[in-house]
Amino acid sequence: MDLKQLKDFPPNFLWGAGISSFQAEGDWRKNGQGRSVIEYTRKEKNTTNFEAGVDFYHHYKEDIKLMKEMGLRAFRISISWTRIFPNGKGKVNRSGVEFYHSVINQLKENHIEPIVTMYHFDYPQALIDEYGGWLDRRSVIDYKNYASFLFNEFGDQVKYWITINEQDHVIKMPDRLGMINAGSYSDTEKEAYIANHNMCVASAEAFNLCHLLLPKAMIGPALSYQVYYPASDNPADVLAADDLSLINQNYLLDLQCRGEYGAVFTKYLVDRGIYPRFPESDLKILKQNCPDFIGVNYYSTDDVTYLASNGKFGKTKGLPIPSQENGVFKKEKNKVLKSTKWGWAIDSIGLRIALQRLYRDYNLPILITENGYSEIEKVSNVDGNETINDKDRIIYLKKHIQSVHEVISEGIPILGYCVWTFMDVISGHSGMNKRYVKVV
Ligand code: BGP
After folding, report:
1. 166 a catalytic residue
2. Is the pLDDT assigned to residue 435 strictly greater than 60?
3. How far is CA 31 from CA 34, 51, 94, 105, in A?
4. For residues 159 and 217, is the Cβ–Cβ distance under 8 A?
5. Exposed site from 99, 194, 367, 398, fewest CB < 10 Å?
6. Is the pLDDT of residue 169 over 70?
7. pLDDT at 429 > cutoff 70
8. Is-contact 182 175, C-beta < 8 A?
9. What does the mean pLDDT of the chain come to?
10. CATH number of 143's domain
11. Is residue 437 part of a domain?
């Protein structure tokens, strides 16, 4: 609906940007850093790997100075678990700890609020080698110990914590779970939901620890949240859009914010024989320990039609995130919205819908942990100066921020907005060509 008047953004609104350790830092396996699954992750053809990153490790002081000049009030970093514990647990690498102290101090000195993600895709390879990582219950203990170390070490400086980045994606990407030889998601669905369960219990343990040790801090997950539109007014498509929203994202928030699998999701897992086995007491842990906010990575929306089983019940297609599942849904191209070169629909109203739905369903403050526009930048010469025309990105950001402004005016508590990103980091799958910032 149109709003008659907009409220001001709150004075303490976290106007920020974000990066992740593996995309930005570089300094690969130097200064004591251990191996992570990222080293073995599927890489698109002809793309850069993450070895050098964009050298944030050596340039963070200059970078933070630039952030200050830009007026950033918050910066989301992720801590590389294997810089702290090269083997995922046990012996601490002091040089890694000092690096993050220095980054956080530098941010604080420049009046930029650090937002710290504890694990952003780069899971310790040593834990995979030892017991299979998230597929084994021991992963919960190791994550809890890692979280406890971070809270004790950095807790006096860091107020905003993010437990796991995009768990909803990680469980559907076998290589990020350390299953290097896994063929496709459909081969490994059972494992995905075991990993998902362990991650949820680990997160709940971290929420609990954070609340005990750092009562003034706030902690929450960051998930990739999309809006799914029915591609037609056929009720079967409306149901498919709801179903996809449940099996891709709401299932996770139901577990983390309500401590329950939910009736429809339980039936989905049981029908496919992939409901994980776990002790009954886990549900108590989940119910008693909920996040203080929801972090949202929002880029685009999708249209959805119903896809009949046709004798292939539960068969999925599309990697790493399925684009269809027989008996549930099939994604379709939206006829109204434009897309980026990577096919992501550009939809600022979708962000407003996403924020409204999240607040309606979970009644928690929301932090926009990622939002941004990717492009293949073309340098052109204007009056003897090399420049890039990034008009489309400016429009994208303005419109998305307008949506945030509208939901704030509707009374929905939004803690901040972190653009992806401030620096020219390497894309998760598409190397250096996919850019989120203008570089000249
Ligand atoms: C999110 C990740 C980020 C970042 C972003 C953009 O899923 O949390 O790490 O990569 O997507 O995606 P991409 O780099 O593939 O364009």
Report:
1. yes
2. yes
3. 9, 14, 9, 20
4. yes
5. 398
6. yes
7. yes
8. yes
9. 94
10. 3.20.20.80
11. no
> Omega of the bond prior to 421 within 30 degrees of 0, cis?
yes
- Gap between the Cα atoms of 160 and 106, Å rounded: 16
Q: What pLDDT is stored for residue 183 in this prediction?
A: 52
pLDDT at 43 over 70: no
User: In angstroms, rounded to a whole number, what is the distance separating the alpha carbons of residues 150 and 143?
Assistant: 11
In a domain, 288, yes or no: yes
pLDDT band at 402 (very low <50, low <70, confident <90, very high): very high
Does the C-beta of 224 come closer than 6 Å to ligand 1? yes
At 440 the pLDDT is 59
Instruction: Report the 10 Å Cβ neighbour count for 234.
Output: 12
Measured in degrees and rounded to the nearest 5, phi and psi for residue 367 equal -115, 125
Can you spell out the DSSP letters for 169-226? HHTT-GGGGT-TT---GGGSHHHHHHHHHHHHHHHHHHHHHHHHH-TT-EEEEEEE--
| pLDDT of res. 182 | 55
CA contacts within 13 A on the Cβ side of 32: 16
What range defines the domain where residue 142 resides?
14-419
Q: Check pocket membership of 248 for ligand 1, CB cut-off 6 A.
A: no
Mutate to test the pocket of ligand 1, among 164, 377, 427 (most ligand atoms within 8 A of CB): 427
| pLDDT tens digits for range 368-394 | 999 999 988 888 888 888 888 889 999
Q: How far is the CA of 427 from the centre of ligand 1 (A)?
A: 6
Q: Does some domain include residue 7?
A: no
Residue 429 is assigned to a structural domain of this protein: no
Exactly one of 166, 189, 375, 406 is catalytic; name it: 166
**Element at 105 (helix H, strand E):** helix 94-109
CA of 215 to the centre of ligand 1 (A): 31
Q: Which of 198-212, 266-280, 400-414, 417-431 has the lowest mean pLDDT?
A: 417-431
The number of distinct structural domains making up the chain is 1
